Automatic annotation (TrEMBL):
Record protein name field: Enterobactin outer-membrane receptor
Family: Belongs to the TonB-dependent receptor family.
Gene: fepA_1
A GO cellular-component term linked to this record: cell outer membrane
Entry-linked Pfam families: Plug
Length: 941
């Protein structure tokens, strides 16, 4: 950690649920007469000195999160931590995907423990309220959370108060702009390719088009995108009133989004969030109750998300020869003869909005007794009630005979969650032997339900009040509890017992052991599981033989092993039943009957994860240089997902039988380096860097089978899950070039091929191209991720630049492949297409033939990139001037986020976010990442 950040890290709370702790001063270091402030790290149900940590934990401070124009705190961490791959979404208010040391499960999510509450979504949380964050990376650190943490865990401590009142006001305003917009053909080029396609497909120019019939030249991206405003303001107060410590804040964020709301009913893609925070702790200090502390951590947020019908794919394929508005009728232009929506109309004539109110409250009490014991009880509740409507009017850009009445759908969700934790902690030293023992009991419950209404013919007049479901016809109402969907239970409950021992001898020899027993309502068999973990460390720098050296302030070796489980996977307990008319006969008379439609595995059990980790930590040259390196090896077993059940006939799900089907391995190496130095009293310099390698491989599949899944075109799936390959790997034909002559194509054994078609490689060498020649085409999982940056403080100025990137991964450009007839083309296709022998050996001819767009390597592109993640320049008002204004601090800054990205991919951005991890690398109508330019201020008084 940077020395300039130590003042933040030493204030980290003792327990993740809100207890104050002060940094401790070590009496002695390995360098004579030098003292240092020891870093304290958040761990599960407690804290520990960083020097004594035996697991792998990444640290994030308040300074890492401050002044970044991101609604979600995790977005600001991208590129900052080794072993943590964060993939951002461009959608305003969207949550990034977090993968910690590879893919832990195909269905679960990373959990966040915020002041005691366990959640998988922190979009409600204002980054300015966070004091510190610990990312638990290895199973030995995670095992104390057991069934909650199979996909990793992040412990977040929000700010607390102490001392004199301090007030802070932070504000920034800026603009967002979509960058790297793909270059598409103009109308002249489209007409040229369209007419060329007619000759290629039909051998005739019959039906050709000209500019005389299509005078328009529309740039559909300009039609749907806009430069938008982003603004955030928050105010906080912190301090003490007697024995009451407090922190309170109010914040408001507005992000207009880059999809332009036009003259229709469109609400755009904006996001607004109001949030409030109040943290209180009170120490009862009479003679009897001197060791009792009580407290409350309260958060309330109100969010609104405008959800447009995402028109990015239609903007990519819509021909430029059509106008937005039909000049004759004044309605949106209908693309006569084209099965393609008008992107502008699609954006304008749909309205959906999601409103969310979320209240989280944590109350706790703590008592210290018998000198060495501390008992604590904590109860956290999460009340979350989003509502959403989806309104589609009578469309005005399709033929009259195809118009349907407007539709309105409303959804009201109810989510009620709680976490009840009880712990007792014993800390004792016997000479040089130091013990820290924890025991606890925890219970969690998650409840989910939904009201669903639908109606037709609702008249919308521009106000939300007019969207009243009772004003429509054909009203349908469902109260949907999750059991009614036959996929899960309404209430998910976990009950747990856990314990942990931390032991060290003279601070040199470190041992950590933990065990947790979880019982889950999600598992019908083997309901309770036990998850153990052990880790050890050796602080070599404290040995006597190191006392004479002046290089290492810290040299520590560590190793760990741990086990985790995941019961939170969807499953069906009852088979689907299909009605068959006249399916049963009595004599010669048929009667209705029912039959089991698909096979269900009622005995789906736990997913399990085991992991090993070995590492080394070093601090050198008076703590100026810090290095942390580790090798990790993690196995996920019995992962629940669908699999091909090819030996079963008659079942509707024979290609997707869900069970404990997969096991896979993640292993790699990670290293982080930080160097900070003070060149003079007024000049300091810092540099950091981190790198993580990853190899993911499916190690076993149920019955040695496989699954072809994900996006598909004409029945050809793009992804195949099979032993020996990475999760999400693409599967199709390998393009070995382009046929230059009809004779070459005829001799290839490739059905229907002719000059200008892709030449598919004959993988089995039998002289015939068929499905047996499909092969694996690449993986969406990066082989390496990295981040690095520099920062300077020169008198009153501060400058910081952060870089971030990935390499070794592939993207499947599904946008480019989706061709059904007369869609437009990108400029690369125009410039590099085959148009006669010798013209191209990379891009095919222009054609609508389905055989040429079968899944193949042409659509698999390099996903590597390097990006300037953030540039920030700040100026601190001189103290004398600040004092004259009766303020403590005023800092002004300007920043640029994502201003530059270098990549080769033929799309907006190589940073692809899909909620489905199996399809994590498929670009299919993905909202693009924007560049954000802001100016802001930090005021303290």
């Amino acid at each position: 950690m940077k020395q300039t950040n130590l003042k933040y890290s030493c204030l980290i709370a003792v327990l993740y649920f809100g207890m104050n702790v002060n940094g401790q001063v070590a009496p002695k270091d390995t360098v004579a007469k030098e003292q240092k402030i020891e870093e304290v790290v958040l761990i599960g149900y407690g804290t520990q000195k960083k020097e004594n940590i035996t697991g792998s934990i990444g640290l994030v401070t308040a300074k890492d999160l401050a002044d970044k124009p991101n609604s979600n705190p995790l977005s600001s961490v991208q590129g900052k931590l080794a072993g943590v791959n964060i993939t951002n979404t461009g959608t305003p208010g969207g949550s990034p995907r977090v993968d910690i040391r590879g893919v832990g499960s195909l269905t679960g999510n990373t959990v966040f423990i915020v002041d005691g509450m366990i959640t998988t979504d922190i979009s409600y949380l204002n980054p300015q309220d966070i004091e510190s964050m610990s990312v638990l990376k290895d199973p030995s650190s995670l095992a104390i959370f057991g069934a909650q943490a199979a996909n990793g865990a992040v412990i977040i401590k929000t700010k607390t108060g102490k001392g004199k009142p301090v007030y802070n006001f932070n504000s920034y305003i800026g603009f967002k702009k979509v960058t790297n917009i793909p270059k598409m053909v103009n109308s002249d080029q489209y007409i040229e390719l369209y007419n060329e396609k007619l000759i290629n497909d039909n051998g005739s120019s019959a039906g050709s088009i000209s500019r005389a019939n299509f005078p328009a030249d529309t740039d559909w991206y300009k039609e749907i995108f806009r430069t938008s405003i982003i603004n955030a303001n928050d105010f906080s107060a912190t301090g003490s009133i007697g024995k009451l410590n407090y922190y309170g804040s109010l914040g408001y964020l507005q992000d207009e989004g880059n999809l332009a709301a036009g003259s229709g009913i469109n609400s755009g893609s904006g996001f607004n969030r109001f949030n409030s925070k109040l943290n209180l702790s009170y120490k009862i200090t009479d003679n009897i109750t001197d060791n009792i502390t009580i407290g409350n951590n309260f958060s309330f947020s109100k969010m609104r998300t405008d959800i447009s019908a995402n028109p990015l794919l239609t903007a990519f394929i819509a021909p430029p020869i059509f106008s937005t508005i039909n000049p004759t009728t004044g309605d949106y232009q209908y693309f006569d003869g084209y099965n393609i929506a008008n992107p502008r109309a699609q954006l304008d004539l749909y309205r959906s909005q999601r409103r969310e109110e979320r209240l989280l409250n944590n109350v706790f009490g703590e008592v210290k007794f018998l000198k060495d014991f501390t008992a604590r009880i904590s109860y956290s509740s999460d009340s979350y009630s989003p509502s959403q409507y989806e309104f589609t009017p009578t469309l005005t850009y399709i033929p009259d005979d195809k118009e349907t009445p407007s539709t309105l759908v409303t959804r009201n969700y109810r989510n009620r969650n709680y976490v009840w934790d009880n712990t007792i902690n014993w800390k004792k030293s016997f000479g040089n032997h130091n013990f820290d023992v924890l025991a606890g009991f925890s219970r969690t419950r998650t409840s989910v339900s939904q009201d669903y209404w639908s109606a037709r013919g609702v008249n919308y007049n521009g106000t939300n009040e007019s969207l009243n479901i009772n004003n429509g016809t054909g009203l349908v109402h469902h109260i949907i509890d999750v059991p009614d969907l036959n996929v899960d239970q309404d209430q998910q409950r976990i009950e747990s017992f856990f314990g942990r021992l931390n032991y060290d001898y003279k601070g040199k020899y470190l041992i950590n052991g933990s065990i947790r027993r979880d019982a889950s309502s999600q598992v019908s068999v083997d309901r309770a599981r036990v998850f153990p973990a052990v880790s050890a460390g050796w602080v070599v720098s404290k040995e006597d033989f190191m006392s004479g050296q002046n290089v290492f302030n810290l040299l520590k070796l560590r190793a760990s092993y741990g086990e985790l489980g995941n019961p939170n996977i969807g499953r069906g307990y009852t088979a689907n039943i299909s009605q068959i008319l006249s399916g049963a006969y009595f004599g010669n008379v048929g009667a209705p009957a029912t039959t089991v439609d698909q096979f269900i595995d009622p005995n789906i059990g736990w997913e399990t994860t085991t992991g090993k980790d070995v590492g080394i930590e070093m601090a050198l040259f008076n703590n100026k240089l810090k290095i942390d390196a580790a090798y990790y090896d993690k196995d996920s077993k019995n992962v629940v997902y669908g699999v091909n059940q090819g030996t079963v006939s008659g079942a509707a799900n024979w290609r997707n039988f869900v069970t404990n089907a997969y096991s896979f391995n993640n292993r790699g190496f990670e290293v982080s380096v930080n160097y900070n130095t003070k060149l003079s009293d007024n000049v300091s310099f810092g540099v950091y860097g981190n790198f993580t390698s990853l190899k993911n491989e499916i190690t076993s599949v149920y019955l040695d089978s496989y699954l072809e899944t994900g996006a598909s075109l004409f029945g050809n799936s793009i992804i195949r899950l099979e032993k020996g390959h990475a999760v999400g790997s693409y599967y199709g034909y390998d393009v070995a070039g382009v046929f230059q002559t009809d004779a070459e194509a005829a001799a290839s054994g490739q059905p229907g091929a002719k000059a200008g078609w892709f030449k598919f490689a004959d993988q089995d060498g039998n002289g015939v191209i068929d499905t047996r020649d499909k092969t694996f085409l690449g993986s969406p999982i990066p082989k390496g991720t990295y981040g690095f940056g520099v920062n300077f403080n020169v008198y009153a100025f501060d400058i910081a630049v952060d870089f971030q990137g990935v390499f070794g991964n592939k993207i499947y450009n599904y946008n480019r492949e989706q061709r059904y007839g007369n869609e437009t083309w990108d400029l690369d296709m125009y410039n590099n297409r085959w148009n006669g022998a010798g013209t191209s050996n990379t891009n095919s001819m222009i054609t609508s033939n389905q055989l040429i767009i079968a899944p193949n390597s042409f659509y698999v592109e390099d996903g590597s990139y390097i990006r300037i993640r953030n540039i920030q320049v700040g100026y601190n008002l001189p103290k004398s001037f600040a004092n004259a204004l009766s303020i403590t601090k005023l800092r002004l800054y300007v920043s640029a986020q994502n201003p530059w990205t270098s990549f080769k991919y033929n799309g907006f951005s190589p940073e692809i976010t899909n909620t489905d991890r199996v399809q994590m690398g498929i670009d299919n109508n993905i909202y693009p990442i924007s560049a954000i330019y802001t100016m802001g201020m930090n005021l303290t008084f």
